[in-house]
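Lecture notes, part 5. Sequence design as translation. It can be helpful to think of inverse folding as translation between two languages: the language of shapes and the language of residues. The source text, in structure tokens, appears below.
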């Protein structure tokens, strides 16, 4: 076989094509995958390759082409030939990339523009020839359902109305927990609305208002969450993040109060988009539709009166994958599922990570700290994430671990929860000091979660200095409260683990509850 690299590489790094195909990457998890999903939208054509089919799928590759298939469909009834050529060219590339990844499944989902165009069937036939798989053309109600499943896949216990804004249509559907209501489709996608309004934002606002005033879905969102899905709304939220100096640039579960969102939408809809502050954070290809996205969202807020707008990075692609899962897998908590994967991939001992869960529960019980069901799932997740930064240089371990957790590709957790996870890991490495912390990141977590982060972070410091991060030690120890003393009980067989650092860290933990700390060694 031909060598990939030549004499410039050491012998140990010279890999043949055959070798490369046979080597498994230790940083990837095995399972049913990779799986590719291509989403043929009215504005974009996107390929996402996922590592495997699971409750919290990880993205291996993601590429988007703005083909603009929906341009002109509202007036001509046909897909534009130039857009079709761009989309088919992207499909050829996406199929080749998926073959290079040796995907075991290749899914194609098509939405409004394709289903509405008179030449949509011709486009689908050519697409199927290129990609060698059937195309699933979603109806409006199916598109709404998939978007809702995307919210269920990525938001813990959702309760509200899902809105999926594409280039050709807007889908609205209620979601409560894992239950999906009946969806509705409206011709208010950015491309379609701009053409209906002949480029006039004032006219677009009236069209959107007239249509949505008659919607039977918007009344149900009053006082509840509106889950916003779609690239235009994500771009709008990204602009809002940068204008407000928000400290966490994670789109999933980014929440904006309805009043703030309405004011922002009105500002964007009435401004020259190219002169808007921080507009450079939005790609030029997205800017043309940004104002129309703001118009539609503004009308939804005005009419529906939700309490907040919650952004979702997950949509119909992830909803489609979620729909393929077994009922057992669907029932798993996606945050804990993702944390379990990171424990396997990054910790020195995944078993030790699991042992931290009952051990920290004993600490909380001893200190008299209550725990809600939401507190519990966050604590389980942070235990599984506790050792993710051990390969980092010790001087930067706290900061790097904080950034990894705060910005991790997790779902099923809101931003206050993310801040809690990150702060806990920071305290685990750096001690109970706040000097290196971003004040704004810390403020994302309410005071109660910040105090829990300090307690659990301090408990981790005791656990890791005692066990050296290895399994089998913590289950042999006990943490109890005796009078006003937090006692760490060690069996005589582990008595030699007692030491000055253990005692110092135990006292630091105990002081958080107003107690003294002591080590006891039993016979």
């Amino acid at each position: 076989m031909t060598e990939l690299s030549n004499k410039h590489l050491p012998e140990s790094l010279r890999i043949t094509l055959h070798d490369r195909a046979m080597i498994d990457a230790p940083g990837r998890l095995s399972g049913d995958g990779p799986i590719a999903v291509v989403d043929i939208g009215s504005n974009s054509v996107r390929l996402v390759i996922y590592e495997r089919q699971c409750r919290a799928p990880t993205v291996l590759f993601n590429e988007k082409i703005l083909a603009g298939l929906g341009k002109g469909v509202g007036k001509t009834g046909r897909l534009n030939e130039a857009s079709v050529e761009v989309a088919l060219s992207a499909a050829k590339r996406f199929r080749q990339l998926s073959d290079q990844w040796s995907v075991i499944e290749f899914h194609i989902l098509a939405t409004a523009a394709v289903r509405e165009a008179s030449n949509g069937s011709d486009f689908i036939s050519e697409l199927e020839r290129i990609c060698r798989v059937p195309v699933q053309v979603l109806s409006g109600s199916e598109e709404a359902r998939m978007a809702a499943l995307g919210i269920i896949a990525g938001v813990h216990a959702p309760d509200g109305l899902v809105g999926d804004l594409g280039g050709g249509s807007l889908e609205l559907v209620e979601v409560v927990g894992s239950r999906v209501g009946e969806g509705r489709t409206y011709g208010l996608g950015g491309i379609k609305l701009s053409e209906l309004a002949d480029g006039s934002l004032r006219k677009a606002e009236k069209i959107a208002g007239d249509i949505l005033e008659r919607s039977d879905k918007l009344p149900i969102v009053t006082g509840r969450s509106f889950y916003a899905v779609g690239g235009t709304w994500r771009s709008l939220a990204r602009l809002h993040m940068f204008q407000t100096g928000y400290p966490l640039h994670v789109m999933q579960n980014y929440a904006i109060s309805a009043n703030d969102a309405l004011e922002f939408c009105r500002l964007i809809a009435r401004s020259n988009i190219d002169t808007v502050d921080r507009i450079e954070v939005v790609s030029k290809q997205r800017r043309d539709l940004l104002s129309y996205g703001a118009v539609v969202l503004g009308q939804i807020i005005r009419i529906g009166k939700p309490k907040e707008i919650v952004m979702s990075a997950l949509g119909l692609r992830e909803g489609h994958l979620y729909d393929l899962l077994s009922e057992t897998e669907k029932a798993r908590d996606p945050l804990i599922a993702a944390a379990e994967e990171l424990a396997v991939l990054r910790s020195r001992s995944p078993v030790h990570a699991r042992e931290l869960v009952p051990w920290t529960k004993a600490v909380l019980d001893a200190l008299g700290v209550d725990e809600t069901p939401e507190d519990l799932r966050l604590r389980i997740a942070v235990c599984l994430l506790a050792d993710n930064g051990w390969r980092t240089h010790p001087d930067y371990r706290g900061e790097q671990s904080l950034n990894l957790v705060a910005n991790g590709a997790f779902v099923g957790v809101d931003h206050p929860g993310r801040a809690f996870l990150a702060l806990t890991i920071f305290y685990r490495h750096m001690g109970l000091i706040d000097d290196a912390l971003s004040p704004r990141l810390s403020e994302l977590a309410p005071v109660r979660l910040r105090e829990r982060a300090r307690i659990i972070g301090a408990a981790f410091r005791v656990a890791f200095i005692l066990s050296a991060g290895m399994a089998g030690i913590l289950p042999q120890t006990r943490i109890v409260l005796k009078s006003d003393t937090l006692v760490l009980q060690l069996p005589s067989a582990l008595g030699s683990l007692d030491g000055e650092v253990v005692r110092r860290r135990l006292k630091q933990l105990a002081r958080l509850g107003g107690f003294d700390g002591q080590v006891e060694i039993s016979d």
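The translated text above is only one of many valid answers, since several sequences can fold into similar shapes. DSSP finds 21 helices and 15 strands in the chain.
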